[in-house]
From TrEMBL, chains A, B:
This is GntR family transcriptional regulator. Gene3D superfamilies: GntR ligand-binding domain-like, Winged helix-like DNA-binding domain superfamily/Winged helix DNA-binding domain. SMART domains: FCD, HTH_GNTR. CDD domains: WHTH_GntR. It comes from Rhizobium straminoryzae. Keywords: DNA-binding, Transcription, Transcription regulation. Residues 8-75 form the HTH gntR-type domain. GO terms for molecular function: DNA binding; DNA-binding transcription factor activity.
Length: 243, 243
DNA sequence: TGGACAAATCTTGCATACAAGACTGGAAAG
DNA sequence: CTTTCCAGTCTTGTATGCAAGATTTGTCCA
């Protein structure tokens, strides 16, 4: 099991902890989610863990292999395409019908873009992953439709899993530029352009995937055995900022 | 508890049985879903019933009132607006990007429209409700994105609950005409028109709602005490076919 | 007659126990 | 040395038991 131990105390719901761990890429697709370990970690019985798993399963975030265990979903290449297709439709539709940006929304978006810049500068990979997904959720929130926001939240989680599976390097600057362009279009009060930019942005991200890549069943082991080039003090983010 | 006893034997999963009951309007919003009764009905323990409830709760189809019980969701007026808003975005987006209709798809759609006509003629209300929702799910299936299909399936279930709460009469013919128009536009290979028609269709349905209506807490009792004007041999469908 | 209180009964919340399939490791046989 | 098999151990699947809050109903008192 991966790094779930950094979650706040057991006040957090189990669902949220797991989704958060995915949204910030602290947990990999295919990671095992042992009922016993989660139960111990949250100081509850397996019953509640299972209930959380059932909810997450309904959201396509975890899957169960009968009598073998629960695992963080590993979206197939086909599923990946469908997720991006769904996001294109939903996000472009949201932006197209987006009302005029309120002052506070504009402020919040700018603050978010600034956060992205800082995370890129600080080479804080987890935070960056989190922010990159959160941007789209924020847009949905501003659009003011909680139903679609909820849908997008799940799709974002799945997107992150997809990225982790099929994307060798994160083109953070490219994504950041895309976000900036969308915000600019919104501020120019041109929702049609914003929608088009969102589609292009998602296209770019999808094109950055290598959907022919077979998932590596040894990935876990490989990671564990490698001397930690992932140390935070090193400069692994050079790759990430690479565009 | 309402009419869930007509479900096929316990081979059916509990989730599916409940969703089916909603999709065909055999069960009302706000209906109580007793764990014990469901457990007895499906000859399983409460554990499995609870797991099904957890999954359905994640899909916003049932809600739990702590230590009071599980109930079929009663979407608020605000939620209703958001659901229709979400459907407008998703369905119009789907139609706009819909590929050219294959022969078998065209055939299937025509068969569906014919089914609608028959259900209207036979005044089969349950079947009609089912078909009306199913039309949109079929479109999504033809569009070929299972992710969005799944989302729409849940939204359709919620739409039916909304209709049952806020719609006094079902304008079946109007809806049927809308469906026909959408199919015609698709056959004319005009996805843009199909998308526009879908938006208008959903607008019409939403406008047919009375979102100011307060839910009647005595509805159940009222229904039970009234001498059955709802008898199948009577002609209640005259109201339904009313446009 | 009306209202307040309390016991009885219902509901879910949660933990636990046990069953059964899947995996692992080692021993035995070829 | 390789392969096969089997026991041990781990996993989830499911049922059950008990606790605690919510509701109902009956009773008593004013």
């Amino acid at each position: 099991m991966q790094d779930l131990s950094t979650v706040p105390p057991q006040l957090q719901s189990i669902d949220k902890a797991i989704v958060d761990a995915i949204l910030s890429a602290r947990i990999q697709p295919g990671a095992r989610l042992s009922e016993n370990q989660l139960a111990a970690l949250f100081s509850v019985s397996r019953t509640r863990v299972r209930e959380a798993m059932m909810r997450l399963e309904a959201r396509c975030i975890v899957t169960v292999s009968p009598r073998r265990g629960w695992f963080v979903s590993e979206p197939s290449a086909e599923e990946a395409r469908h997720v991006y297709g769904a996001r294109r439709i939903i996000e472009s539709g949201l932006l197209r019908t987006m009302p005029c940006l309120k002052a506070e929304d504009r402020q919040a978006l700018h603050r978010h873009l600034e956060d992205e810049r800082q995370a890129i500068a600080a080479a804080d990979r987890q935070r960056l992953t989190c922010l990159m997904g959160d941007f789209h959720i924020r847009l949905a929130e501003i659009a003011g439709n909680p139903v679609l926001t909820e849908v997008l939240r799940d799709l974002t989680a799945r997107t992150i899993l997809i990225s982790l599976m099929y994307q060798s390097v994160v083109h953070a600057l490219q994504s950041h530029d895309g976000h900036c362009a969308i915000v600019a279009a919104l501020e120019a009060n041109d929702p049609e352009a914003a929608a088009a930019l969102a589609i292009r942005h998602l296209d770019e991200v999808e094109e950055g995937l290598d959907l022919t890549r077979r998932p590596d069943p040894l990935a876990d082991l490989r990671r564990s055995l490698q001397p930690d080039t992932e140390a935070p003090s090193a400069s692994p983010m050079l790759k990430i900022i690479n565009r």
